[in-house]
Amino acid sequence: MSDYVKVKNYAKDGDIAISRRVFEELATEAANRVIGAEVSKVKSKNKILVKLYRPTKVTFRSDGKVEIRISITIAKGANANEVCLKIQEEVAQSLLFYTESVPFDIEIKVDSIA
Question: What does pLDDT average to over the chain?
Fold first, then answer.
């Protein structure tokens, strides 16, 4: 399993690869910009558990597609469908800005309501 995905470079000046961590950060920041939700955080005093918990998971498939799964906490009274759709749109816009030639899927999971 690779930790980078190559971006198609039509100028043929060299290869560009984007790390899994970059996809995670872009998706997390985009999801946190949406009003009414935030990316889930682990509520534990155990520092090891906090480091292992990843609310944004990125998987590179063999067909070149990038799968992004984000676990979120929705504000009480917010419409879950609208918030999830807005998060998908925001994440898609962020990823298209940086990686316009990489196909991706975005899956949102509602962890809790705060």
Answer: 84
